[in-house]
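Q: I'm writing a short methods note and want an example of a predicted protein-small molecule complex. Could you take the sequence and the SMILES for pyridoxal-5'-phosphate and return the bound structure as tokens? Please keep the output block clean; save any remarks for afterwards.
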Amino acid sequence: MEQIKVLLNDEEIPRQWYNIMADMPTPMRPPLHPGTGKPVAAEDLAPIFPMNLIEQEVSTERWIDIPDEVLQKYLIWRPTPLCRARNFEKLLDAPVKIYYKMEGNSPAGSHKPNTAIPQAYYNKVFGIKRLSTETGAGQWGSALSMACQMFGLECRVFMVRVSYEQKPYRRMMMHTWGATCIPSPSNLTEAGRQVLAEHPDSPGSLGIAISEAIEDAVAHQDSRYSLGSVLNHVLLHQTIAGLEAHKQLEKIGVYPDVVMGCAGGGSNFAGISLPFVRDKIHGKKVKIVGAEPTSCPTMTRGPFAYDFGDLAKKTPLLPMYTLGHDYVPAPIHAGGLRYHGMAPIISHLVHENLIEARAYNQLETFEAGVRWARTEGFIPAPETDHVIAAVVDEARRAKEEGKEKVILFNWSGHGLVDLASYEAYLSGNLMPYELPDEEIKRALKAIEGFPKP
Ligand SMILES: Cc1ncc(COP(=O)(O)O)c(C=O)c1O
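A: Understood, no commentary inside the block.
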């Protein structure tokens, strides 16, 4: 019988995360303090993050030990299976073998607990009692709610309003795990009140929700902020997925020609791909592709520039592909991909031509997701539909080129609490949303005069 799933035993779980900073072929530009224009110092970040996570943020150690307490929680659902998508391959009728890393079977339903658990753990051992965060589609907020509950921390989540309304079950999951969930923009923070004064009907954005969560964390005692993507330590934690996949493929003697992931802030894509980028830096031939929405085409149409991570300019200036910090993406259903910037690590690798990006519109992505559900069964999250559209595209290219290819991708989350978006797609009520050039030009005015990387 043909083997469809490659499994690892509990004892085979990786004991260390992989830090690409040790292997970067060229140095990355540092984050800058917006006041001084100088690289930020660890102390600048101390009101926002605990020092043990700041140390990881700036670390250049190649391998970082995963604490036992974190491994114990990972073992609830990890190692995750690596599966061959035989039925989807048949449907595509192209010379490709497709392997997917199943990150949708975590308790919260996505890859996000891979970093939620260590972030809650490191805050706890640092003496923090309460975390504030933002969430787009609710995947991150629910993952952090669960992790905080596991380590006895309070949790407050600012959820982008359009998703708060589209996805009530995510909010209920957060409540079940004991967190509070507030639609953003809200009246609880100065940043939220300012947006509401100008745009009372604002659908919200991740940039606004981040401003609210940081302000909330700084205003409360023994409280810190937690970010679900973008930053180096978040990408570090996500490498557990790529390291497992690397081991699993090795077990069956396969090496991928293409590694793919959908990218919002970049942590999911980084998680699956960075161990393979390491191979590429050391001479291996492998193509690494990130998939993003045409409504928020950060890597494919934004410039590589210094910009803020949030609307209210509370973060350091980060060197990244960006559409401008006040850009509010169209309300597509893949709420987790509605972010104006891209992780500095991913941005640097794009800039160095080590990885590439492609953009897909909402209709193409749901079409791919429905085809997946009708062959492989599992219903993907709308975010995950983006990488599935990229896999369909890659299979088409393989067919046209007459080349055999092995594709690996991260199946980042299930869509069981996103079914309203599938219904909207199936009843013909979704828009493709291309972003006009004039809107990009307008949004980029916000970063004119900023230092250049
Ligand atoms: C299922 C799923 N996949 C991918 C992403 C994108 O995540 P990242 O910010 O890690 O790129 C999200 C974000 O919420 C998500 O929920």
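A: Remarks, as requested: The domain at 78-109+239-447 is CATH 3.40.50.1100 (Rossmann fold). The longest strand covers residues 96-102.
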